[in-house]
Amino acid sequence: MLAALVFILLCVQPGHGQTCTEGFAYDRRARQCIDVDECRTLPDACRGDMGCVNQNGGYLCLPRSLYNQPYRPDTPALPNPVYQDPSAGFPDTFLPAVPGGGGGRGGVEPSYPRVRSTAQCILGYTLAEDGTCNDIDECETNSHHCNPTQVCINTSGGYTCSCTEGYWLIGGQCQDIDECRYGYCQQLCANAPGSYSCSCNPGFILNPDSRTCQDVDECEDEPCSHGCFNTYGSFMCNCDEGFELAADGTTCIDLDECSFSEFLCQHRCVNTPGSFSCICPPGYYVFEDGRSCEDFNECDTGNNTCTTAQVCFNFQGGYTCLDPLQCRPPYVEVSDNQCMCSAENPACRDKAFTILYRHMDLSSGRSVPADIFQMQATTRYPGAFYIFQIKSGNDGREFYMRQTSNVSATLVLSRPIKGPKQVVLDLEMVTVNNVINFRGSSIIRLTIFVSEHPF
Ligand SMILES: [Ca+2]
Ligand SMILES: [Ca+2]
Ligand SMILES: [Ca+2]
Ligand SMILES: [Ca+2]
């Protein structure tokens, strides 16, 4: 009978600056101890007819005829197996004892030391009552040599010590992998013992891969009052014309255009959401430019209450109905706006020869001085000269007459006059003719409608 020989040769790897246990070498790229394939690196790992089988942290020498056969610990043809203890100083993997080749198959008589077991089963197995060999669960029975940081994994005939996920073996100890140092997360990373978690900056959301982040399209939730633009990591709101963005960056608030300038409207500005409008006082309408006030001509449009006997007179911001002219005796009517006192009538002595009725309008607060009315002699007598003066109505001294030639004069507004108001002025032209010793006068009765507004 040829006893199978099993050798586990432990190879001590010289240090590479990093301490690894026997059978392991430090890999700089992986930054961890990885198993050495002794079958490749040792020239004569196994002698004679023995074939080399690499194992994690060691290797096995098995008869070449055997090492492809499945291992069956209860095979009765394999009594008294030889076991070589891989022993201490090799905490990472405790290799199972592997039975050698069967007897009578033409092997070489072993010349290696034997360890004879008193048990019926090979090491790692225990004899059950029914005579079969059952695997010993070293992890369960606490008969393993795993480091406290490691976990024990039972195998058939042996056990393995390994690190759980998220840990790697450094110096024989399982140590947490700091995934954050190795850029596992695209944005934010929190390391944890045996684990890690990724999160994202505000404006990003974690992808299903739990590592990368993608921009959130905030506009889908319609956070803006008006327009929304998605941006990488954020979003921006904008507002329609006439609105501005509030301090919160999302709300659009109306611009109060009226507060920008008091000259926006000629009369009054009314702020509206997103815009503004100008309004005008009664008697005016808003001009095409949207800001000026234009007088409404009630006389032209027929929008007045004057009777057919009356004459409609339009002025800025209103109108008036003028009654038909009635000349007070001794004056008699000579036209629809003129009364005359005949020179032949003794009652007309010292009275003006004619009274001409005229009407005009004037804007309130008009700048001064301003020439507002002209008067002129219509008939010129040889040797006559003319004097122009305001005979009555100028109680506030807002007006004066300026003679512009021998036969003409201009009524000048010299002080601002505030409406609404009606001023009636009697403007007199005195004719003096010393040749024929004549002195006479004629009057223009001028009614001035001063508007309420300066337009
Ligand atoms: Ca970790
Ligand atoms: Ca965004
Ligand atoms: Ca507005
Ligand atoms: Ca009017």
From TrEMBL:
<dbReference type="GO" id="GO:0048932">
    <property type="term" value="P:myelination of posterior lateral line nerve axons"/>
</dbReference>
<keyword id="KW-1015">Disulfide bond</keyword>
<keyword id="KW-0272">Extracellular matrix</keyword>
<protein>
    <recommendedName>
        <fullName>Developmental arteries and neural crest EGF-like protein</fullName>
    </recommendedName>
</protein>
<dbReference type="InterPro" id="IPR009030">
    <property type="entry name" value="Growth_fac_rcpt_cys_sf"/>
</dbReference>
<dbReference type="InterPro" id="IPR000742">
    <property type="entry name" value="EGF"/>
</dbReference>
<feature type="domain" description="EGF-like">
    <location>
        <begin position="254"/>
        <end position="294"/>
    </location>
</feature>
<feature type="domain" description="EGF-like">
    <location>
        <begin position="176"/>
        <end position="214"/>
    </location>
</feature>
<dbReference type="InterPro" id="IPR055088">
    <property type="entry name" value="Fibulin_C"/>
</dbReference>
<keyword id="KW-0964">Secreted</keyword>
<dbReference type="InterPro" id="IPR018097">
    <property type="entry name" value="EGF_Ca-bd_CS"/>
</dbReference>
<keyword id="KW-0325">Glycoprotein</keyword>
<dbReference type="Pfam" id="PF12662">
    <property type="entry name" value="cEGF"/>
</dbReference>
<keyword id="KW-0245">EGF-like domain</keyword>
<dbReference type="GO" id="GO:0005615">
    <property type="term" value="C:extracellular space"/>
</dbReference>
<dbReference type="InterPro" id="IPR001881">
    <property type="entry name" value="EGF-like_Ca-bd_dom"/>
</dbReference>
<dbReference type="Pfam" id="PF22914">
    <property type="entry name" value="Fibulin_C"/>
</dbReference>
<feature type="signal peptide">
    <location>
        <begin position="1"/>
        <end position="17"/>
    </location>
</feature>
<dbReference type="Pfam" id="PF00008">
    <property type="entry name" value="EGF"/>
</dbReference>
<dbReference type="GO" id="GO:0005509">
    <property type="term" value="F:calcium ion binding"/>
</dbReference>
<dbReference type="InterPro" id="IPR000152">
    <property type="entry name" value="EGF-type_Asp/Asn_hydroxyl_site"/>
</dbReference>
<dbReference type="GO" id="GO:0022011">
    <property type="term" value="P:myelination in peripheral nervous system"/>
</dbReference>
<dbReference type="Pfam" id="PF07645">
    <property type="entry name" value="EGF_CA"/>
</dbReference>
<keyword id="KW-0732">Signal</keyword>
<keyword id="KW-0677">Repeat</keyword>
<dbReference type="InterPro" id="IPR052235">
    <property type="entry name" value="Nephronectin_domain"/>
</dbReference>
<keyword id="KW-0106">Calcium</keyword>
<dbReference type="InterPro" id="IPR049883">
    <property type="entry name" value="NOTCH1_EGF-like"/>
</dbReference>
<dbReference type="InterPro" id="IPR026823">
    <property type="entry name" value="cEGF"/>
</dbReference>
<feature type="domain" description="EGF-like">
    <location>
        <begin position="135"/>
        <end position="175"/>
    </location>
</feature>
<feature type="domain" description="EGF-like">
    <location>
        <begin position="215"/>
        <end position="253"/>
    </location>
</feature>
<comment type="similarity">
    <text>Belongs to the fibulin family.</text>
</comment>
